[in-house]
Amino acid sequence: MCRKVFVSFLLFLLFTNVQASDAVRINVKMNNTSLREFFSYIEKNYPYTFMYDNTDINDKQLITVNEQNQPIEMVLTNVLKNKGIKYEIQASQIILSKTNTTVSESNRMQTRKNITGKVLDEKGDPVIGANIVEKGTTNGTVTDTEGDFSLEVEENAIIHISYIGYLPQEISAAGKNILNVILVEDTKTLDEIVVVGYGTMRKRDLTGSVSSIKSEDIQRSPVTSLDQAIQGKAAGVQVSQASSAPGGRVMIRVRGGNSLSSSNEPLYVVDGFPVSAGNSAGGNGTAQNPLATLNTADIASIEILKDASATAIYGARGANGVVLITTKRGEVGRPKVSLDVYQGV
């Protein structure tokens, strides 16, 4: 019997406290005050006690409160909003603790947004695998097979777009949710033209070993023959004079000799037509060099094919390498006349 009376008394006290808690209305008006001063005011004027860790309270955070006839829950919710502190009311005790997300992180999450877009090249084709990175961070993604991408970034982030062979771009995401980017090819080195056996191609598409000598390189020194134009200007190419007679035969070896009995001369191709340079396997060295009649001032470029890719184009004739000679041709515009004179004894 006594036990039942005691339990009933405890339930009565608890019910009374709950009713008292619900019945308490807060009236507070404070300007530019700290959280500690606010807590002290509530404890002095109302039946509540605050429990918290001193390190969780930032005294530099000033608040302004103007609540009239409001329950304690609403007052605390308004005061602690965006302060990184949560509360729990147990009877007359209010327990304060830090939230898992700090104020700065909460504000940062509120300012993030999702950016979508498409990356195309100058022809309008999608760029697959382009890098999309939020500048200054490791946050990034790549474009899909359609050139589309989606990335969550800061409101005022700088988006860095890059792809191999194209000029990188940086675009501000401020006030934008959709980005359509057109990448421009980096033409500094990719579009350099190299002459090969079957025509011309861009240097980035060339996989064989090629040495190129331009007309500007030939004009820098007063040379009078093809061998002098090549000598010392191409790696792996050896040039020697086989005859001391004027216009005598020269020997050109691409990466050394390949045979003891057959000719080691490379194949000469002038403007697409093979030219015989004579037999260098033997003889008395008096054979004339047909390339000696070619004026070096008329040469636009010289390309030397030095690897096995030459045989894929010219067959067995290119086994010792191929020397491609392209002469100058007419250009659109006004006629120009130039005169080069060299004299010697």
Question: Which structural class is indicated by helix and strand composition?
Answer: alpha+beta
CATH superfamily of the largest domain: TonB-dependent receptor, plug domain
- The CATH topology label of the largest domain is Ferric Hydroxamate Uptake Protein, Chain A, domain 1
Low-confidence parts: 15-21, 279-287
Span between termini:
141 Å
For the record, the count of structural domains works out to 3
**Subunit arrangement of the protein:** single chain
Largest sheet: 5 strands, mixed
Overall pLDDT: 76
Q: Helicity range of the residues?
A: 10-25%
Helix and strand sequence: HEHEEHEEHEEEEEEEEEEHHEEEEEHE
What is the CATH C level class of the largest domain, in words? Mainly Beta
Main-sheet strand order equals 15-20-21-18-19
Q: Please tell me what the overall shape is.
A: rod-shaped
Keywords summarizing the entry:
33% strand; alpha+beta; Ferric Hydroxamate Uptake Protein, Chain A, domain 1; 3 domains; Phage tail protein beta-alpha-beta fold; four-stranded antiparallel β-sheet; 345 residues; 21 strands; five-stranded mixed β-sheet; rod-shaped; Immunoglobulin-like; 19% helix; 7 helices
